[in-house]
Amino acid sequence: MSLRDAPAGAGAGGEFGTERARMVAEIADMARQTGQETGRPRFADGVMDAMRAVPRHLFVPRERADSAYRNHPLPIGSGQTISQPFIVALTTDLIEPRKHHRVLEIGTGSGYQAAVLAELVHAVDTVEIIEPLAREAAQRLRTLGYHNVSVHVGDGHAGWPARAPYDGIVVTAAASHVPSALVAQLKPGARMVIPVGPQHSTQEFTLVEKRADGGIVTRVVLPVRFVPMTGGS
Q: What is the pTM of this model?
């Protein structure tokens, strides 16, 4: 788990350390600016520490490494992107991760969001529909020492029922609706964050909470733009 087994220079004090510190400061400033909308004007210290620790430049194509710590999304190939750092931090903060949690991620991409979560929870299960991306992300995460992340090739709409229920779910692609299979895989009291809305347009970044009695409460957090979630419905 974490970067203790990572190559030299991968951690917060190594290569791109200044750029990473600037990114974290920008995330904190943006959290303050959007706090009235999100209800999170300050992200948890653990979340900010994870954003500071994970070497984002190792999760983007080599030719884009110099842009890795700018606060915007970047293409990673196969028509997919690595999310804006602020959105990764907000997503992570909204599910309120704890050290004993098992979390499901839908849309592995390059593995960056999974790595951030892995800094904070006991285990991360992540599902990616594009097999080459899944294979590359799994290798990257292993190389960086994230042995508490399991990568599965499959349709994210179905989640990973064999490993459910989960203490939190994050979805990193826009769905037309909240998949009922994912709601079913949430533990009572757990949270899911998912962008909901039409493809290639503005979507609603939505927080889904399953109450202790199994009831569902949803809240729109922010307008966002994500790549579409592919696969079945």
A: 0.92
